[in-house]
Amino acid sequence: MPISDAEATVMEVLWQTNPLGADEVVAALAAHTGWAEPTIKTLLNRLLNKGAIRAQKQGRRYLYSPVLARQAWVQQQSEGLLERLFGGRVAPLVAHFSERGKLSAADIAELRKLLGELDDE
Predict the structure, then answer these.
(1) What gap in Å lies between CA 119 and CA 113, rounded to an integer?
(2) What is the CATH number of the domain that holds 111?
(3) pLDDT tens-digit profile of 36-95?
(4) H helices of the chain, where?
(5) End-to-end CA distance of the chain
(6) Which of 20, 38, 75, 119 gets the most CB atoms within 10 Å of its CB?
C-alpha cells in the first residue's frame, strides 16, 4: 500500500509505541513537525482508510495501532527505489554511493561481511 512521507512520519510514531490515542500521536509529532492537530488527525484517518492502522475504541477515544509492519514497508520502499532508479539491481546502487564517497570504511566492512555470508550459503 502506498504511504506518503507525511503518513510514514505518523507510522514511525506508532511503530515505536502502540497503541496510542490521537492526542498522544499529536503530542509526539506537533513539536518537531510543526503540524497542527487537524493535520495529524487527517493523516491518521488516511492511514485508517488505507488499512495501514486500526483503531480500537476505548471509552470516549480511539487507540491506534499499526497493521502494516515496518519491515514490510521498508521492503516495499527499498524494492520500489531499486526498481525505479537502478532497474532492480543492487550493484549499481552500491556503485552510485561509492562514486560519491558516501560509503565509509565501516560501510565497506559491513558489505564485505554480508557478501562473505552470501558466499557461505
Answers:
(1) 10
(2) 1.10.4040
(3) 999 999 999 999 999 999 999 999 999 999 999 999 999 999 999 999 999 999 999 999
(4) 5-16, 22-33, 37-50, 70-86, 90-99, 105-120
(5) 32
(6) 20
Give the predicted TM-score (pTM) of the model.
0.81
> Distance (Å, rounded) from C-alpha 53 to C-alpha 64?
7
- Categorize the per-residue pLDDT at 102 as very low, low, confident or very high, splitting at 50, 70 and 90: confident
The DSSP string of 17-43 is S-SEEHHHHHHHHHHHH---HHHHHHH
Assess whether 75 and 100 both reside in one domain: yes
Q: Which residues constitute the domain of residue 35? A: 5-66
